Amino acid sequence: DTVEPAFGMPAKWIKEHLREKAEMSGYTVVDPPSVIATHLTEIIKRHGHELLNRQDVQTLLDNIRDKYPALVEEVVPKTLTLGEVQKVLANLIKENVPIRDMVTIMETLADYGNVTKDPDMLTEYVRQALSRTITLRFMPDRKGKVLTLAPELEQAIMESLQQTEHGSYLSMEPVKTQSILRNLSKEVEKITSLGLQPIIVTVPIVRTYFKKLTEQIAPDLIVLSYNELDGSAEIQSIGVVNG
């Protein structure tokens, strides 16, 4: 017995001559090169944000500078450093949000870069500006069956936020955290049993902290805020995560 490395699913090694028998028994049989390729693809997908460097960001800015020179200059270097823009873009990539619309991203950073330098907060402003992109990315038909957070849980998270000069972080009792994760696992299991992609929708202030809270046990969990869904999106809550 073994564990399939890309998705953490139980698996078995078998001899090549048993392949046909296994397939006839209903098993999915994958050859070693395919397993390795899938594993590497998952690694790149999960860690691609770590590969984005300052030079990459400079290249992205240079690509729009010809048409939008004033916008680029207003953001870098007048409002934010190249490193701060890099962190925002890395946050987006980490959660599979496309960064093709650099003009909207930069306009949002120009609007809010004087309000906060916190990359996480700036990312939330950018995500809301990219609501159409995010809606199409995660709900292509603009409809989605989702999980929501109980109001009491959202309130508990907001009350557990600690402010520092370097930004905000979630400070919650381990027992409470484990209870939340257990309840989340149950709801995710229910929704996946229906053949659906688990998507959490919550209030804007909670989104990023809930994502960070859950990324160790569910790194691929999609967590959106209501403000990131454009007006045409139709969502139906089919489960509630309690604290």
Explain what this protein looks like in three dimensions.
It is a single chain. With 243 residues, the protein is of the alpha/beta class. It has 3 domains: 2-47, no CATH class; 52-129, Helicase, Ruva Protein, domain 3; 141-241, 3-Layer(aba) Sandwich (Rossmann fold), CATH 3.40.50.12790. Helix content is 53%, strand content 15%. It has a 4-stranded parallel β-sheet. Strands 1-2 form a two-stranded antiparallel ribbon. The mean pLDDT is 88.
Structural domains: how many: 3
**Strands, count:** 8
CATH domain fold name of the largest domain: Rossmann fold
CATH superfamily of the largest domain: FHIPEP family, domain 4
User: Which geometry do the CA atoms define?
Assistant: globular
Euclidean distance between termini CA atoms: 35 Å
Please report the number of helical segments: 11
Radius of gyration: 21 Å
- What is the N-to-C succession of helices and strands? EEHHHHHHHHEHEEHEHEE
Largest sheet, order of strands side by side?
Answer: 7-6-3-8
The first-level CATH class name of the largest domain: Alpha Beta
Task: Tell me the helix content.
Answer: 40-55%
- Strand percentage lies at 15-25%
Structural class: alpha/beta
Main beta sheet strand tally, sense and closure: 4 strands, parallel
Q: What is the level-2 CATH architecture name of the largest domain? A: 3-Layer(aba) Sandwich
Q: pLDDT average, as an integer?
A: 88
Residue runs with pLDDT of under 50 for 5 or more positions: none
